[in-house]
Amino acid sequence: MNTRKFANVLLALGILSSFASAHSAEPTDKPRPTRSMTGADARNNNPEGEGLAKSAPSGLGKADRAFITKAAEGSLFELAAAELALKKSSDARVKQYAAAMAKEHGAALKGLKQVGVNHNYPLPEELTQESAKRLDRLKDLSGQEFDNAFKSDVGLNANEEDTKLLKRAKRATRNQDLGAWIDQTLPVLQKQMQRATQLAKG
Question: Do the beta carbons of residue 58 and residue 120 sit within 8 Å?
Fold first, then answer.
């Protein structure tokens, strides 16, 4: 082999070697382009919900939700009626009953709100139209008329409605939080009913 041919062979080998080295330096797995994830994709890829607004299912049945709403509405009415009695009544016994009722229904409503928070179910915060009209009728009365109406409509009737409502829900619910709230609240309402009966007799 003459000198020129030998030089050409060396040059060709050098080019091939450089080409092979360049390709071997490239990564075998190129990173795949990422895409922005929203909605269900983001939740599925973030099981802890970090950085996302959580909206856990209620865990309450339809009947449970209806009961919670109605129980809250009842407590809101009796709280408002009790506050009205504390302002309008001139009977010390009525005022004493109203003060105890306000305290007890306030505590019951607070506990029920916590049940709602635990199960992502909001409670009503305003009186229903029916309850507002009921309260307005009391507002139009004064003196003995007011005291008698309060003892009858709030002390007896509203309390009896609440007690029956809780008894039905106690038999029907399968939710532990709600069942515990009913077990705690029902005896309080029953004692309240006993006091209302005594008050009405006097």
Answer: yes
- d(C-alpha 67, C-alpha 72), whole Å: 8
Tokens of 159: 């309390």
Question: Could you tell me the mean pLDDT of each successive run of 10 residues in the chain, 202 residues long?
Answer: 47 44 46 40 31 48 97 97 97 97 97 97 96 97 97 97 97 96 98 96 84
Rounded to an integer, what distance in angstroms lies between the CA atom of residue 165 and that of residue 67?
A: 8
Angle at 82 between CA 81 and CA 83, to 5 degrees: 90
Token digits of residue 157: 């009737």
Strand locations in 43-160, DSSP E? Answer: none
Structural domain harbouring 102 = 65-201
On whether residue 36 sits in a domain, the answer given is: no
Tell me whether residue 18 is in a domain. no
Residue 127 per-residue DSSP state: -
| pLDDT tens track for 75-113 | 999 999 999 999 999 999 999 999 999 999 999 999 999
110/22 Cα distance (integer angstroms): 72
Total domains, the chain = 1
For residue 10, being part of any structural domain is answered with no
- CATH value at residue 73: 1.20.1260.10
- Domain annotation covers residue 7: no
Residue 71: partners with Cβ closer than 8 Å, 6 or more residues away: 112, 162, 165, 166, 169
